[in-house]
Amino acid sequence: MPEISSLLAFSLVALGLVLTPGPNMAYLTSRTICQGRKAGLISLGGVAAGFLFYMLCAAFGITALLLAVPFAYDALRFGGALYLLYLAWQAVKPGGRSPFEVRDLPNDSNRKLFLMGFVTNLLNPKIAVMYLSLLPQFISKDHGSVLTQSLILGATQIVISLSVNGVITIMAGSIATFLAERPIWMVFQRWLMGTVLAGLAVRMALEARR
Q1: How far is residue 90 from each of residues 84, 157, 175, 187, 192, measured CA to CA in Å?
Q2: Is 208 helix (H, G, I), strand (E, B) or coil?
Q3: Neighbours of 42 (CB within 10 A)
Q4: Nearby residues of 138 by Cβ (< 8 Å), 6 or more positions away
Q5: Residue-wise pLDDT tens digits, 168-210
Q6: Contact predicate 41/166, CB 8 Å
Q7: Residue 17 and residue 126: Cα distance in Å, rounded?
Q8: Average pLDDT, the chain
Q9: What is the DSSP-derived secondary structure letter of residue 102?
Q10: 70 partner at 20 to 30 Å CA-CA among 53, 76, 113, 204?
């Protein structure tokens, strides 16, 4: 079982990342607005399957990696910090795009909606960084099985991500309209997420190995 403090800290990191614009958010909002809430929720089911796949692969891989090569943690940590800084820049750079700027998508079958949600999540580098670089720093071998801690942290991330993405999917149309009518909020959203990501990157880079 992870430390409560580690679990809470990881939850905040997971929340910050899911609120950061990325491929999943862009796809789910566009799909919902173009084809309706049902299509968005089916796509979210595919995203959930992608999270589960990542969690299981990463949990067993992280377990083997940390037990065999402890110093590999530092490589993952610095790689993750650099990628978070890249995401921060993408959020605040001139001409940055909000996920609520809708893309035109064709109507797809339920099967294809689920599959596209799954593939979009698998190809999302932000999720790979979450499991390969962020998650290991919240695991301590002094607090029980590394595998168990990995699964608990992974399940926590999935619950948080699906909850937030579910709300965004259901309210996509209203959010897009609100932001379109208030451009200053779009800018505020991007700078807030960029600041959060940069802060997480600095924290990760300075975090000592457990």
Answers
A1: 10, 23, 21, 13, 12
A2: coil
A3: 22
A4: 2, 6, 7, 9, 10, 149, 153
A5: 888 876 766 666 666 676 677 677 767 777 777 777 677 654 4
A6: yes
A7: 8
A8: 77
A9: P
A10: 53
